[in-house]
TrEMBL record:
Role played: Catalyzes the formation of N(7)-methylguanine at position 46 (m7G46) in tRNA.
Highest taxon, organism lineage: Bacteria
Alphabetized PANTHER family for the sequence: 3-DEOXY-D-MANNO-OCTULOSONIC-ACID TRANSFERASE/TRNA GUANINE-N 7 - -METHYLTRANSFERASE (PTHR23417), PENTACOTRIPEPTIDE-REPEAT REGION OF PRORP DOMAIN-CONTAINING PROTEIN (PTHR23417:SF14)
Protein name: tRNA (guanine-N(7)-)-methyltransferase
InterPro entries: SAM-dependent_MTases_sf, tRNA_(Gua-N-7)_MeTrfase_Trmb, tRNA_methyltr_TrmB_bact
Organism: Streptomyces lomondensis
């Protein structure tokens, strides 16, 4: 016999009063969503190029994280090698985007080019939820959202020559001189990225911080695995495929200068050994 008759009725809900319950200590924020620290302490401690930000997650973003993360999200835990055709369900080219903010530009690029897959990485939970929401609302099945450290993703989870492009738009400039070591675009990062980019793939950076733009240009120009697509060796005009974001528009209104850099992954030709004749000799 049911004891429902003895179960007290829940109190009526008062409009305008939140029903959010308090999480117990240690309980995950989104049980079916991104983990707070997916790689944990499995990898070496090093200087990070990103700073996780805690900010309010809206109801829509929270719903998207709970509902869509198992379908379109992945945690960067470094424990497996990704099969990109399996991840996206097709053999289309894959572009890695590191740092997508709230995801509006990512969604626009995915909609404009549905035959290119975008693996978008960030640690900002509201942005992850917002991008999933945009992808769902607009039927963008060519987006996957990754949570965690892009370095671990590149080094531990992607195979050589698996990427057809890399986008780094408006990374944290770390303006103070003592923090410059935290900037993402450094020789070691480029060397790692080059191993995952197929020859001919484009590395596209954009920043509104001019000193960082100059450093990016210097570091990329000096790196043997990349060549500038611009004949004059300088910055590139903003390509049509990179949308003008609200953040960027606000900066331009304030007089900020935005610089784009488009560098191509070089195909190296192996030199013959000294004890071997050149090919065709």
């Amino acid at each position: 016999m049911s004891d429902s008759a003895n179960t007290p009725e829940p109190p009526p809900h008062t409009p305008g009063v939140s029903l959010r319950r308090t999480r117990a200590k240690g309980e995950p924020r989104f049980p079916d969503g991104p983990k707070a620290d997916p790689a944990g302490s499995h990898f070496e401690r090093r200087i990070r190029s990103f700073q996780p930000r805690r900010s309010r997650v809206t109801a829509g973003q929270a719903d998207a994280l709970q509902r869509l993360w198992p379908k379109w999200g992945l945690d960067i835990d470094g424990s497996r090698t990704l099969d990109l055709p399996d991840l996206f369900g097709n053999d289309n080219p894959v572009v890695l985007e590191i740092g997508f903010g709230m995801g509006e530009a990512t969604a626009q690029m995915a909609a404009a080019d549905p035959t290119t897959n975008i693996l978008a990485v960030d640690v900002h939970t509201p942005g992850q939820g917002n991008l999933l929401n945009l992808a769902d609302r607009n039927g963008l099945s060519n987006i996957r959202v990754a949570n965690g450290d892009a370095i671990i993703l590149l080094r531990e989870m992607l195979t050589p020559d698996s990427l057809d492009g890399l986008r780094v738009y408006f990374p944290d400039p770390w303006p103070k001189k003592r923090h410059h070591k935290r900037r993402l675009i450094q020789p070691a990062f480029l060397t790692l990225a080059a191993t995952r980019l197929r020859p001919g793939a484009i590395l596209h950076c954009a920043t509104d911080w001019e000193p960082y733009a100059e450093q990016m240009l210097d570091v990329l120009t000096a790196h043997p695995d990349f060549e500038n697509t611009q004949a004059d060796g300088g910055f590139a005009p903003r390509p049509d495929f990179r949308p003008l974001t609200r953040f960027e528009g606000q900066g331009l209104d304030k007089g900020h200068v935005v610089n784009d850099l488009l560098f191509r992954r070089v195909q190296h030709v192996d030199q013959p050994h000294m004890d071997q004749p050149p090919a065709g000799a």
